[in-house]
């Protein structure tokens, strides 16, 4: 893309990729010039990737495989400059002009406000949609006027991700008619396969999943029950708010190595957070975990339902006796086990209950 004496030009929401140019004057992806540094162009929310400046290195040649400017001032914000190549220097360069940079992802780095140089993690090299958990998500200018387009007022609409803060790259920003993607994509209910998360790279003999906010940060975390006969630890992943997850280790809720068939969550001690009950098979006692209020858990080891063993299949919380406390119903199969109904008398400091067999 070339801007030749275009004062005041704003280039926004473009994918500039796989260009082979700058034969004499550098700038394989984007090239701009003007009269002097009183001329200002703006490069905003663009994805400039895998371009090359092939000329031999010289005063003006073979530089700036991503971006090159002469003479003027170029304001760059919320862009991704990645995978570009040149004969010498960095992927952005200048001959007599100067950059004003803020909130960009630039491979090899460059002086500016909040420049990052981490791999932006594209889902593919066709649409250059960011993978869930990309460091470019929610990394743009934090001013609300830059926020990503949203349909519900609380989360960014695909193909942007994360919360409302502007994503870097071509899809970031508030424009619902973003020229970087077709209108059909904006209105569609789209899913993209997550490839680089521990949620999809960790193996297990899984039986059930629960989406639940365990740490009170208003995003959904993921609990997976694993249940081979010889036992396997269950798994808990914490959501960092951008669709990336971190596996919890060292907490009792992921250390019991039992044949678990499922789990159900409720605030059984009425302290404002979600506690967990896990059902086990093969006569193994079921498991009860009390949330400490910060996403860590204490295992309850005394009293029903923590000491009830069976071939438990499912469980449900509900206040069946209308006393303001959730009760627990557990179904069993095989081995002539009866179902359990547990009436909660618990508080945060004293998780106690009574059981009836049904």
Brief summary of the model shown:
The protein is an all-beta fold and about 350 residues long. Helix content is about 5%, strand content about 30%. The strands form seven sheets. Strands 1-4-8-12 form a four-stranded parallel beta sheet, with no helix packed on it. A four-stranded parallel beta sheet has the order 2-5-9-13, with no helix packed on it. Strands 3-6-10-14 form a four-stranded parallel beta sheet, with no helix packed on it.
Determine the number of helices (DSSP H or I, runs of at least 4 residues).
2
Give the H and E element order.
EEEEEEEEEEEEEEHHEEEEEEEEEEEE
Shape: elongated
Strand content: 25-35%
Biggest beta-sheet profile: 4 strands, parallel
- Biggest sheet: strands side by side, in what order? 1-4-8-12
Q: What percent of the residues sit in helical stretches (DSSP H or I)?
A: under 10%
Q: Determine the N-to-C terminus distance.
A: 74 Å
**Unreliable runs, pLDDT <50, ≥5 residues?**
none
Oligomer: single chain
Number of strands: 26
Measured on Cα atoms, how large is the radius of gyration? 28 Å
Rounded average pLDDT: 88
Structural class: mainly beta
């Amino acid at each position: 893309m070339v801007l030749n004496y275009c004062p005041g030009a704003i280039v926004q929401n473009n994918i500039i990729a796989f260009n082979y140019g700058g034969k004499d004057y550098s700038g394989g992806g984007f090239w701009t010039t003007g009269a002097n540094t009183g001329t200002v162009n703006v490069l905003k929310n663009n994805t400039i990737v895998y371009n090359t400046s092939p000329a031999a290195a010289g005063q003006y040649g073979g530089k700036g495989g991503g971006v090159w400017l002469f003479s003027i001032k170029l304001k760059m914000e919320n862009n991704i400059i990645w995978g570009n190549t040149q004969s010498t220097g960095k992927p952005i360069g200048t001959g007599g002009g100067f950059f004003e940079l803020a909130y960009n992802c630039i491979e090899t780095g460059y002086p500016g406000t909040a420049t990052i140089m981490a791999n932006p993690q594209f889902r593919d090299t066709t649409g250059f949609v960011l993978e869930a958990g990309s460091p470019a998500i929610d990394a743009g200018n934090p001013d609300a006027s830059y926020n990503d387009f949203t349909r519900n007022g609380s989360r960014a609409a695909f193909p942007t991700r994360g919360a409302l803060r502007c994503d870097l790259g071509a899809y970031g920003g508030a424009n619902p008619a973003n020229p970087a993607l077709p209108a059909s994509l904006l209105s569609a209910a789209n899913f993209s396969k997550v490839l680089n998360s521990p949620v999809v790279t960790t193996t297990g003999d899984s039986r059930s999943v629960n989406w639940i906010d365990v740490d009170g940060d208003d995003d959904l975390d993921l609990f997976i029950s694993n249940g081979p006969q010889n036992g396997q630890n269950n798994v808990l992943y914490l959501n960092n708010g951008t669709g990336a997850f971190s596996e919890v280790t060292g907490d009792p809720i992921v250390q019991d190595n039992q044949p678990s068939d499922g789990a159900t969550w409720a605030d059984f001690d009425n302290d404002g957070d979600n506690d967990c009950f896990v059902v086990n098979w093969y006569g193994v006692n079921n498991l009860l975990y009390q949330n400490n209020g910060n996403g860590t858990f204490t295992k309850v080891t005394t009293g029903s339902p923590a000491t009830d063993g069976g071939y438990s299949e499912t469980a449900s919380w509900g206040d069946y006796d209308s006393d303001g406390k959730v009760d627990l119903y557990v179904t069993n199969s095989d081995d002539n086990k009866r179902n359990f109904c547990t009436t909660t008398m618990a508080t945060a400091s004293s998780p106690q209950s009574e059981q009836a067999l049904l």
